[in-house]
Amino acid sequence: MTTALSPARAAEPAPADDPAGTPGVGGPSLAAARPDPDDLDPRRALREVARWQSGDRDAARFPYRAVLGHYRAVGKNAVGEEVLTALRAVEPAPAQAAEPAARLLGDWLPQVVDGRQGDYDSYLGSPVYASLTEAGACTQEVLTALLADVVEIESATLADVPAGLARTRAALRALTAVAGLPAAYGTGAAPGAADEVADLVRAAAEAVAAARDAVPAGVLRAVELTLTPTTRSHDEQMFIRVIQIFEAVFSAVGRAVQMATEAVAAGQTDLARGLLAGATRQVAGTSGVFRVLTTMPKDAFAVIRANTDGRSAVQSRSYRTVERSCPTLHLTVQRGDLPADGLRSAMRELDTAWCAMKRTHWGITVKIIGAVRGTGGTAGAAYLREAAEARLFPALD
Ligand code: HEM
To answer: What is the overall mean pLDDT for the chain?
Structure first.
């Protein structure tokens, strides 16, 4: 924090969601620290939702901005009952039920009506992403939009909080890799350069613009709507985006394993091998995203943890789908009378990448929360260390 603290308070870091702090890593978000006064007060959101309800209830004109403005300025856990009640009554006009805008609204609402009782799915906006996939959005587009948002959010606070340099660089490198942008974007200025911050902010803005150009509007819109941190912490925004990125990867890997199983059953081993190799690349690509996550300050995460009890990723269905689909794939390979050497090595590579990802997650957990229990009710790091040893294809020789 770079705020002037009194000598008596200087030794204690300000709470990460204290809106009086300097926005950026370890402090509040920009939306909390420099809010539009109308966003702090629930009345604008209430007024706009009431106007929408009493009008033609056209989902395409739902006042997302007013609602999200309020949520982001105060933090979801501080949103009052009146707003929650108004949102719980929201329903698009029946004639529009089949339209994409009505579907988006229906998918989005669980994320804002869950109050403090939400789960992992409503934390990250799972239904919105499930519909995107169903509508044909590709994983690379979703990852690009999510990473572009991380880069934008992080670079917006760099001038005041240089502690964000490492995170912005890591996010920019991850974006460059996923979006297939020229490597030059990923470098920004060299550490220690005179205009380090200005150069990085410029590189970030160019990369974000180039990345978003390649992403369909529907994907950008979904990403824009699915950021509702429970606190006013800057770091929770990054945390939610990172979770959404991993979820997109888990879903893609689960689909690849299931399609590979069908391909093996149909005797198409080359197709199955290609699908598994693609899944392995996706899993291996998470190492760049972990580098963003490791910039999470312990104190900031303690505040996030305290506000997200019961929303642990241990509930992730896409993660379990990967684990549960692999034995079926292995069984199908064993039953098929196929030349499966290449396939077995593709399975082994996916297994190795998956276990490496789990070990990294365990290492980060140890660093950030130590030995305390998880928000999902497990023993925490000790549980993860054991889980990291569980292989996707344990019977593969
Ligand atoms: C600060 C970063 C993180 C910490 C400290 C952390 C901590 C934990 C802990 C303690 C658990 C055990 C379950 C529980 O009781 O909650 C867990 C499980 C899990 N976490 Fe994280 N986590 C972090 C980030 C992430 C991210 C970004 C993802 C991406 C989705 C993720 C995915 C998972 C999954 C899938 C599980 C279930 C693992 C299993 O059951 O094998 N975690 N995490």
So the answer is: 91
